[in-house]
Amino acid sequence: MITSIVVLTYNELDKTKQCIDSLYKHTKRDDYELIIVDNGSSDGTKAYIQSLSDVIFIDNEKNQGFAKGCNQGLNVATGADVLFLNNDTVLTPNWLEPLRKALHETDQVAW
Question: Which pLDDT value is given to residue 108?
Fold first, then answer.
């Protein structure tokens, strides 16, 4: 079972790099698909995202807003679960499995 991780970006290249680096470092590759929606960045963020492998990239020419960007990512997600991750988040070891466990322990939880 994979989790679709949707990251919305708008500039903030350094924070985006930290976020993605921590994702790669602390998440097993077989556990997720990464979807990045860029909302018209002009600081090199798009080029960085395009340099990544195994990423589903949605490239908006102009800022579509947070909600629409999230919905665009959700529309292409194929995972059993979907997680929206802010691009200024730095992940730590063993972060994903406890979230999955909490989500599936009861039908009263949502991410």
Answer: 73
The number of beta carbons lying within 10 Å of the beta carbon of residue 66 is 14
Residue 45 lies in a domain: yes
Domain CATH for 39 = 3.90.550.10
Task: Compute the distance between CA of residue 36 and CA of residue 72 in angstroms, rounded to an integer.
Answer: 10
- Cα separation, 29 vs 17, in Å, equals 17
Number of domains in the chain: 1
Q: For residue 33, is it left (φ>0), alpha (ψ between -120 and 50) or beta?
A: beta
pLDDT tens-digit map of 77-107? 999 999 999 999 999 999 999 988 888 887 7
pLDDT tens digits, one per residue of 14-57? 999 999 999 999 999 999 999 999 999 999 999 999 999 999 99
Strand order in the sheet with 55-60: 55-60, 32-39, 3-9, 81-86
What whole-number distance in Å separates Cα of residue 70 and Cα of residue 31?
20
